[in-house]
Write a structure and sequence with these properties.
Layout lengths: L9 H10 L21 H7 L1 E5 L14 E5 H7 L4
Antiparallel strand pairs: 1-2
The protein binds zinc ion.
The site of zinc ion (ZN) has 7 residues, from strand 2.
Length: 83
C-alpha cells in the first residue's frame, strides 16, 4: 500500500529510484519525483512515486528495503492488497 513520503525514507527512495531508473515498478512508465515536475496538482497526485510493498504488509510482507519498490500513486492504489 502507499505510504506518505517520510524524510527517514529518503535514502531508500534514492536507491530504488536509481535502480528503477525512475520507472514505475507496476506499469513501467516514468514517475514524477517532485511536485514541481508536475504541470498540475492532480497529475502529481496520480503520477508521483510512492513506496509499494512487493508483498503487501497485510499478507505478511516485511517493511524492509528488499520488500519495497517505487510505483505511481495511481498504480499503487489500483494494486491495493493484491500480490
Ligand atoms: Zn505506474
Amino acid at each position: 500500500m502507499a505510504r506518505p513520503f517520510l524524510a527517514a525514507r529518503s535514502a531508500e527512495f534514492e536507491a530504488l529510484w536509481t535502480a528503477q531508473s525512475g520507472l514505475c515498478a507496476l506499469c513501467g512508465k516514468p514517475m514524477l519525483r517532485n511536485r514541481f515536475e508536475a504541470p498540475h496538482a492532480r497529475i502529481w497526485a496520480k503520477q508521483r512515486a510512492t513506496f509499494d510493498h512487493v508483498i503487501p504488509r497485510s499478507k505478511g510482507g516485511a517493511d524492509t528495503a528488499d520488500n519495497l519498490q517505487l510505483a505511481h500513486a495511481r498504480c499503487n492504489k489500483i494494486k491495493g492488497n493484491k500480490l
